[in-house]
Specification:
The protein has about 270 residues and is an alpha/beta fold. It has a single domain, classed as NAD(P)-binding Rossmann-like Domain (Rossmann fold, 3-Layer(aba) Sandwich). It has ten helices and seven strands. It has a seven-stranded parallel β-sheet, with helices on both faces. Helix 5 links the parallel strand 5 and strand 6. Bound molecules: NADP nicotinamide-adenine-dinucleotide phosphate.
Length: about 270
Amino acid sequence: MEYELVIITGASSGLGREYARALAGRTRTMVIAARRRERLESLAGELAETQRGLNIVCEACDLADPAARDAWADKLQRMPRGRTLLVNNAGLGDYGEYAGAKRERVREMVQVNIAAVAELTHALLPRLIGQGGDVLNVASLAADVPLPDFALYAASKAFVASFSEGLRAELRQSGVRVLAVCPGPVHTEFGEVALRRGQARREAPLRSWFYTTAERVVQESLRALEKGCARSYPSAKVRLAGCVLRALPLWLLRPALNRRPRRVASQPPEAS
Ligand SMILES: NC(=O)c1ccc[n+]([C@@H]2O[C@H](COP(=O)([O-])OP(=O)(O)OC[C@H]3O[C@@H](n4cnc5c(N)ncnc54)[C@H](OP(=O)(O)O)[C@@H]3O)[C@@H](O)[C@H]2O)c1
């Protein structure tokens, strides 16, 4: 068994659920967290059928709530000792100009995409360093480019990628591997959650060609973690896009960002 304990945030749908399926055979205990308990319980039932002997703990936790995060982090300290994998996957977006965002959504994104990743990792580091383990942080291809109409989301993922790189260097001698996963678009509930009320979104013509499946993101990123890579860009197209975006200087990128195609209709600021 590779891990004694695997912890996955945002396991109630999309990539998190796929990480749980892929990792169920590689650990003795798995903690799956999200707000929708019934979804977690149904996933736990599915995993229990395929992986006899797997101990599954469902944690209904609102990661946007600092007090709930603290309480959960305390509980995690009492989990069985041993090699641990932390998958910081929970996250959400918000399509449209920042001026039109709801204040609650702004707060939620900062709390879930940034604060929860920083705090949960911090709470588990003594265990990871002392007992062994790895950290897999789900960032995004958006980490590599500032994105108008998705400005806070892209910035929050730039935080995840940068944080992962710095932490990885700090932990080099400890044997704890840190991976930042940078997927391109994936069909999950993400797009639906990111839409504002009454908003319709036009897909960019190239975007549908660009999609990767959740299964592929998970398989490629877990292979990258095993190899000790710093980043994973699942699928060749996304890898190429990442290379191009990282090579482009900002002065060249800015004019393109200023003339970006509008994928969402401009809306007045939503009431907070
Ligand atoms: N799909 C894409 O195109 C794409 C591309 C690049 C990166 N990503 C990243 O991939 C990760 C997973 O997203 P996904 O595509 O799988 O989207 P998803 O299907 O919407 O899943 C998001 C997960 O995050 C959880 N979550 C959201 N807010 C939460 C909160 N306040 N407390 C606890 N859990 C919360 C959700 O659970 P509950 O709603 O049950 O709480 C859900 O399990 C995210 O970090 C996202 O930014 C996605």
